[in-house]
Amino acid sequence: MHVPELLESVSLLVPEAIATENDITVGDIWEYLVHDEWEIALGLLEELGDGHPLPLSFWEKLADAADQLRLERSAAWCHWRCSEIRNGVVRADLTLRPAAEARRTTPISGPGVLRPMWDIGHLSPTGEPAVNIARLWVEGMPYLAPGGRATVRLVPLTPSQWEHVQPGRRITMHEDRTVAGTAVVLEVHPPVPPPSRGRGRE
Questions:
Q1: By residue range, what is the domain housing residue 118?
Q2: At 144, is the secondary structure helix, strand, or coil?
Q3: Which of 152, 140, 139 is nearest to 181 (CA)?
Q4: N or C: which end of the chain has fewer CB within 10 A?
């Protein structure tokens, strides 16, 4: 599909009753689509999706449209939201260790590039801490410098290993054997099951 068809298809997935913080509804977005204001329409659809749970197909089609428009940041965010739906997401308050105390001396890129390891309480067969990988997105910031603090979103590589993690739990981030940062879990959202394709009555 081309961009106009994709955005129209995405708009049809949004309930008419929901609105952005500025009271923009999908009806307003259609006005932008009529006038070929695709980038504005895409940004507003992102806002609607960030404020309300919408299906995987919403974010997949929005990501496709952003890719075609070459909006790198929007495309990265839409693809990220797809991964959150498939794998679940953990929001946490992360504080990185200062550069003088840690291996990392450069900032972490904000938009979901880093895949650090996390100590979430698992042990190896020998009783040593066993870490688990989760991708990291820094909310509202292009990067997070050593010693900095921010709210982050974590998408687990293996969601089943994170099922015991609950809000309030303290977890540690690792890029090697040393602790790179400490986070307190704020929210946990498990993977969204795919729509059932049950058979109808025969």
A1: 88-189
A2: strand
A3: 152
A4: C
The number of residues in the chain equals 202
Is 201 within a domain? no
Cβ-based burial of 147 (10 A; exposed 0-12, middle 13-18, buried ≥19): middle
- Assigned domain for 194 exists: no
Residue 200: what pLDDT? Answer: 47
Model-level pTM greater than 0.85?
A: yes
Return d(Cα 149, Cα 138) in angstroms, integer. Answer: 10
The answer as to whether 195 is a domain residue is no
Q: What confidence tens digit (pLDDT) does each residue in 121-148 have?
A: 999 899 888 999 999 999 999 999 999 9
Domain presence at residue 80: yes
Choose among 177, 49, 155, 172: nearest CA to 118.
Answer: 172
Q: What is the dihedral of CA 14, 18, 73, 71, to 10 degrees?
A: 50
Question: Tokens 């990067």 belong to which residue?
Answer: 143
